Every structure is written in C-alpha cells, then in structure tokens.
Amino acid sequence: KIPKYSCPPPPLPPPLRHTQSQQVLQTPSPLKHKPSLNGLYTPQRTSTRMQRQDVLPVYLTKEKLTPTPSFTAWDTKGRLEDMEKLYENLKTQLSGAADSKTAIEESLSLYKARVQELSQLNQDLSSSNKTLGSDFERARNDLHTTATDLRNVKRDHERDIQEVERKHERDLADVASKLEKEVHLLQRERERDEDRFKKEMEDAKAKWQRAKDDETADLTTQHWEEMEETQKRHRSEKDLLQKEVETLKSAADSRAIESADEVKELREGVEGLRKELEEANESIKSLKTKLSGEEAKNAGLEQEKASLVSKTHFLEGNQEAQSLEFTTMSEKLQDALTARDATLDTLRKEEMLRRKLNATILELRGNIRVFVRTRPLLTGEESPSRVEYPDQDSLEGGKEMVVHAPTTLSATGKERNEAHKYAFDRVFGPGSANTQVFEDCRDLIQSVVDGYNVSILSYGQTGSGKTFGMSGPEGIIPSSIGLLMAEMQRLSEKGWEYSVEASFVEVYNETINDLLGDAKTWDEGDGGDGSVRGKKRERHEIHHDPLTGKTTVSNLSSVALWPPPSNDGQWPPPASTADTAQDATADPESDAATSYTHKAIDNLLTTAMKNRRVASTKSNERSSRSHSIFMLTLKGSCAATNETSEGVLNLVDLAGSERLKQSGAAGERQKETAAINRSLSSLGDVIGALASGKGEAHVPYRNSKLTYLLQSSLGGTAANGKSSRTLMLLHLSPLAAHWQESRSSLLFGSKVLGAHIGSAKKK
C-alpha cells in the first residue's frame, strides 16, 4: 500500500519549486512617507519583509516512495491559504502603493510650485541685477561726467583767474600811465606853487611887518596921547580944584556960613574925578593886555612861517623820491608789458586747446542731438496728459520720460493703460524756462565762433510753443546772438576780429520768401492781400558751392550786426545811445556799437514776425503757416596766428504739424497744411536715409525746399571737409487730446536720435 503522502503533487505549468515561488512572491513592501520640516513628505523605503513561514517543502526520492525525513508532506490546502495570504498581502501592498503614488503626486505638485516660485524669484533677482548693473553704469557715467565737469570748472576757474590777472595788468598799466601824468602835473604845479608860495610869503611877511609896525605905532601913539590927555585933564582939573580950594579958603573967612549941601557936592565931584582916574588906569591896563596879545599873534605868525619853510624843504626832498618811484614804476610797467605779451601767447594756445576739447566733447555727444520740451498748461486748458520724468532731479538733468496713453477699452471690455518710455539727450518738463533750455545749447552755439555749421530745428505740432521758444523773450535767437557777441568781445582781447551778418527767410508752400525784404514784392497767389502783395515776385534760388560747402540764396537781404555800419540810410537805422550816456565810466564807442546791435536784432525780429505767414485754425488761434530759417554768418580772422574761420548758425522754426480732420482746414489753409506735412515728411525721409548709413547719394534732399536749404546742415561733411552739428528740439503739447500728435513727434525724435551725420570738422 502506497502511503498517502507518497504521491507527487499534480503538475503545474510551469513547474516551480516552492522555494522559488516563495522567492518570487517576496515583493518589496510599499513605500512609506514621513513628514519633513517644510510640510512635505519624503518617500522612505522600509526594511520590513514578509515573514516566511517555517514550512519545509515536500520531496520524493527515487529510492523510496515515503516522504523524506525532516520534510513535510504536500499540503494543497495550506498552499491555497498561503496563496490567499500572499494575495491579501499583495493587495495591501498595491493599496499602499496607490496611497504612496497619491502622496508622491502631491509632493511633486508642491515641488513644481516651489520650483516655479524659485524660477520667478530667479527672474526677479536677474532683473534686479540688471537694474543694479545699469545703475552702476549710470553712477560710473555720472562720476565720469562729474569729473569732467570738475575739470571744466577748474579750467573755467583758471580762465577767470587769467582774466582777473589780465584785468589787473590793464588796471596797473592804466594806473602807471595816470601816475606818470599826475607826476608831471604835480611837478609843474609844485613849481608854480613854490613860486606863488614864495611870493605870497614875501608879500605876507611885508604886509604883516607893516601891519605890525603900524598897529604898534598906532597903539603906542594912541596910548601916549590918551595918557597925556588924561594927565593934562587931571592937571587942569587938579589946578582948578586947587584954585577953587584956595578961593574957598580965601573966601572962607568971608563966607563963614556955607551951606552943607555945597560942601557935599564938592566932595561928590572929587569922588567922580577919582573914579575917572581909576577908569583911565584900567584902560591903560587893557591896552597893555591887547599889546601882549598882538605880540602872541606875532609869535604865531612866526611859527607858521617856519612851518611853511619846512614844508617847502619837504616838497623839494619829496620830488627826488617821486622821481625815483617813477623810475621804478617805469621798470615795473615794462615788466608787466612783457608778462602781458607772454600771457597773450599762452591764452592763444589755451584757446586753440579749448576749441579742440570742445570739438571732441561735441563729437562724443553726437553731432545730432534731440531735446524734448513740454510746454505748461495755458489758462482755460484742462485734461492734461499723464507724463512722468523719472530722472528729472539727476545732476546731468532729465533724459527720460514716460508718457501714459489715454485709457481705452480692450475687446473684452477691460481698461487698457499703456505707458511708453522714451530716452533722449535732454528732457525738459513744463516748468523749464527759455533760459534753462538755452543753457544746454550753449556749447553747441559757441562752436559757431570756432568755425562750425550749427542748426537748431524747433519741431512739433501746432500750438506746442515752438515760436515762443525760438523767438520769444530770452528765446534761442536773441540769447544766441548775445552769447556770440560776448564770445567775440572775449576773443577780441586775443587778437580776433569778427563780422556778423544775419538773414531771415521762410518756406511757404514750397516757395522761399525774404522776411527782411519788401512784402509788396510777394504775389497775390500766396494768399496775401492784393493791395499789398501786387507786385512781381523776386525769385530766390538755393545754391550749394561744392568747393566751399557754403549755401547761398539769391536776392536775399542781409543785415550787418557787427561791426556797426555807418549811418548811410540803410536798414536798420543806427540805435540811439541816449540810454548809455548816463554811464560816465563806460566806453562811448562800445556802448554805441552794442546798442546798435541790440536795436538791429529787435528790428529784425519785429520785421520777420510781421511778414511771416500766420493764420487761425481749430488747433491754434495763431498758427505759423510756414517754416522760418534765421541764418547768422560769422567770419573771423586773427592777425597774430594768421587764422581764419567762418561759421553759420541756422535757427529753424518749423511750421506745426497737424491733421486736416482735426484742424478743420479748408481752401487755402488746406493747401498750406498739405505743403507743411509734405515738407515735414520729406525731412523725416532725409533723417531716415541718414540713419540707414547708405551714404549721401541716397538722401532725398531735393524732395522739399526745406531739406534742400538745410542740406549743408543735415548732410554732415561737405566736399571741403566742413561739417555740421544739428539739434532737434521737440515741443510737445501737455493736453491729452493731442496724444496722437505728441506720440508722432516722439517717434520722429527717436528716429532722429538714431541718425549719424559724420564727424564734425571746422573750416
């Protein structure tokens, strides 16, 4: 009989040993998680494994069919229970794995959020780093600019010291010359005074001696005469008294009875005589006192005579000291003249160095610059645009502005607020005055004296304040002329002589008109009054000399501003010098010349403003309908260094750009607006062509009379090597209603800022 446990178990596909199945079923336990400090869960692998039951497998051998000792028989039910337990464990592990997966996904989402926060933080730090880098660069540039300004201030201080030294030398020379003249005058006066003094002394001495002798004689004679008369009177009175006494004594006997009253009267008479005698004695004493006073006065006159004699000896000795001092002053004067010549040579060299440094600074800043100025609100204007000036308080002045567009609605109905940031060479806020704008243009205008062509273009929409900034009180035109006049007077001390001429033209409907000429020569077709502009027009043609690079306009009037011409009846008449006559210390010729120049400038601007085309539109009550160009030509020469220079200053007041729909122009105004916009568009094309860097051959100067007239100023270097420097001064309106026009002007200014017109060279 075969034992119960001797049969092998039923076959299993594939046959596996129980131990192998045990090993296969031993899967790792699910991951467990433990909380971290930051609230996240970190997966942790457990070391817990399934506890294997201590059940030995059952084996059958070939030798015997009985179970092998120490082996347990095959237990199907037990194995099923093991499988069920294994299934339960596996199910538990799967459930734990699902929980672990959920926890891992949560941790992953937290990690992703954390990574996104760190990325955003990294971007913020990068932006902050860039900002700090730009601030560092700006600070370094500010430091460099400050150092440059310090050197400029130091150079200006040294220049002022030299000016003071020169003035001191001139004053010393004047004092020396005056002193020399005064010495000669003193010598002549001293000689005359000595002669007159000697004669007066002799006359005074003789007169005093005569007066003294006469007075003494008179006093003595009068005294003795009075004494003799008194004595005679006293003797006669005494004799009379004695006679009377004798008579009384002789008659006493006969007149035994005499009244007491008569005796008393006689006694009173005697007392009166005694008093008279005493008075006479006192008179004698007073005469003696007066005589002693006269003697004291005589002693004083003697002392005065001695002092006058000593003063005469002093003057004779002082003459030698003055002669010695005059010789010393002459030597010092000669030394001062030698030092002055050496100083003038040094000043000429420093002036040449200053011009080179000024040219280098302007070249580094760029030969074409753009300034922006926003005019203030006028009375009755409302709804201003929102404009910010971030760096308005910086040492170099504001160069950035942020313009906020009016609020609009997007397609989804949300409000949209756009902010546009712009950067230029200089930005002026509404509170900036004309003097502040001119101060930033000084170095550019001053280079005209050094022989450069300079153009300042006032650009902007109508009503933005262009004409006020150019021709108004303390505007660029009068301030520029004042600066150039001061520079010419300063350089005249260094041997430079200048002549200045001015012209004023306008470009109206692509036609050039002479604003200083006779307005009656303009045709009726220009929109003028027929009774005034009924004569034949004088044609003005533009010519560019390829050899000298000079631009001229035919049949154009010019006014000599310096030196003042003689009064030959030409315009303008010489200015009156009545205002300057009150200053007695001023030079009459210099005052008359300066007064003439200022009067000529006032007449020039008044005539030009009267002849220029203006009209009223919906955008502006007084709108300029033409482009005006003020041309100032300076020619200088220095005989000491054999140098010459010629510079031209073009101050351009462009007509206001405007839209036909907004301005409401019609008829002649519509034609003017179209011509203005077309010329401004041509100016933009020229600037764009210059910015592209394709060369002069591709620049469309001839598309407009305005650009063709300004070719030498915009085109950079001419055939003779003479170059130009250009400043575009953008004027903006502060009103929100003019936002589109202001933005167009800003975009045009940014376009101009990117243009390059070459390296500046003087003639």
Quick overview of this protein structure:
Helices cover 53% and strands 14% of the residues. It has helices spanning 18-25, 76-252, 260-365, 434-439, 442-446, 466-471, 476-492, 588-611, 660-663, 668-692, 705-709, 711-714, 739-753, and strands spanning 32-35, 41-44, 368-374, 386-388, 400-404, 408-409, 415-416, 419-423, 426-428, 453-460, 496-508, 511-514, 542-544, 551-553, 559-562, 614-615, 623-624, 627-638, 643-653, 724-732.
Helix and strand topology:
Elements: H1 18-25, E1 32-35, E2 41-44, H2 76-252, H3 260-365, E3 368-374, E4 386-388, E5 400-404, E6 408-409, E7 415-416, E8 419-423, E9 426-428, H4 434-439, H5 442-446, E10 453-460, H6 466-471, H7 476-492, E11 496-508, E12 511-514, E13 542-544, E14 551-553, E15 559-562, H8 588-611, E16 614-615, E17 623-624, E18 627-638, E19 643-653, H9 660-663, H10 668-692, H11 705-709, H12 711-714, E20 724-732, H13 739-753
Parallel strand pairs: 3-9, 3-20, 10-19, 10-20
Antiparallel strand pairs: 1-2, 4-5, 5-8, 6-7, 11-12, 11-15, 11-18, 13-14, 16-17, 18-19
Structure notes:
This protein is of the alpha+beta class and 763 residues long. The protein has a domain of 287 residues: Kinesin (3-Layer(aba) Sandwich), CATH 3.40.850.10. 53% of the residues lie in helices and 14% in strands. Strands 3, 9, 10, 11, 12, 15, 18, 19 and 20 form a nine-stranded mixed sheet that branches. A hairpin with a 5-residue loop joins strand 1 and strand 2. The protein is elongated. It starts with 17 loop residues before the first helix and ends in a 10-residue tail after the last helix. The N terminus is likely disordered.
